[in-house]
Amino acid sequence: MSENNGGGGQLAGKVVAVTGATSGSGLAIARRFAAEGADVVLMARGVDRLKALEEELGPRAVGLTTDVGDAESVRAAFDAVGGRFGKLDALINNAGLHRPCPFERLTDDEILTQVRCNLLGPIYTCRAAIPLLRAAGGGDIINTSSEVTLEVFPYEAVYKSTKAGLEALGQALSLEFEKEEIRVTTLIQGVALGEGGGSTDWQDSGEHTQLVWPRLQAEGTINRVIGKHGGMTVESVADVHVFIVTRPRGQKLDVIRVRSY
């Protein structure tokens, strides 16, 4: 496990906010950015997990209990970032909810939960982050999308819609803030294996598991998205994030697709 001891690193002096920071790719990203010397703002809903990760990463990691789907919660979190650091160099919109479900069985709550987390969340966080990125003289926003925008999978209507909307958001913000040196990258991420990663959210689809999982297996969907190497690691996803934010300021990466094969 990495520990940010305040030493050097290619991201020393940078302030990075990571949503969904306590599990899966978000956890690996937070650890990697801390290891590279950044001050890392950890945003997630779970208080205990946040506290544990703060302790692991050291004094330059700041945990903020945040529900990205709640505008007031997001506003309060970024106000705290501004009060402590006065700037933000990178926002990693990693938080997301993947809940496969037959379309006609979707409840109102299942629809709203995904829309709030996957689409409204990044809208709220980007809006709150822009003034802090501007204060830093520019920076990066990385929005985590999914291969579901490139392929059509069953039981993914709402998830696909939210991720397509997220990609449209990235395109619009990239143009709007380009002259202010605020770069927006869409990261189309395949299946990543790690703490909270992998195909488990397909396999465990609650009351819909008996419908979802057998069809995905029978049609070869799982094998196709995981690839012959069994999926990439969350640590390799973190590598890509570091690569993006360390590009020369004159270089802009609009869309990156990272996956196993």
Topology:
Elements: E1 15-19, H1 24-35, E2 39-44, H2 47-57, E3 61-65, H3 71-85, E4 90-93, H4 108-135, E5 139-146, H5 157-176, E6 182-189, E7 192-193, H6 200-203, H7 209-218, H8 221-226, E8 232-233, H9 234-245, E9 255-258
Parallel strand pairs: 1-2, 1-4, 2-3, 4-5, 5-6, 6-9, 7-8
Pfam families: adh_short
Keywords: Oxidoreductase
GO molecular function: oxidoreductase activity
Tally of strands: 9
CATH topology: Rossmann fold
Question: Can you summarize the main beta sheet?
Answer: 7 strands, parallel
The share of residues in extended strands comes to 15-25%
Mean pLDDT: 90
Overall spatial form:
globular
**Which structural class should the secondary elements be placed in?**
alpha/beta
Order of helices and strands: EHEHEHEHEHEEHHHEHE
> What is the rounded Rg?
18 Å
Separate helix tally: 9
Return the CATH architecture.
3-Layer(aba) Sandwich
Strand order of the largest sheet: 3-2-1-4-5-6-9
What proportion of the residues is helical, as a percent range?
40-55%
Uncertain runs? 1-6
How many separate structural domains? 1
At the first level of CATH, the class is: Alpha Beta
Please explain how this structure is put together.
Pfam families: adh_short (PF00106). Belongs to the short-chain dehydrogenases/reductases (SDR) family. The chain is an alpha/beta fold and 261 residues long. It has one domain (15-258): 3-Layer(aba) Sandwich (Rossmann fold), CATH 3.40.50.720. It is built from 9 helices and 9 strands. α2 links the parallel β2 (39-44) and β3 (61-65). The longest helix has 28 residues, at 108-135. The radius of gyration is 18 Å and the shape is globular. The two termini are 27 Å apart. 44% of the residues are buried.
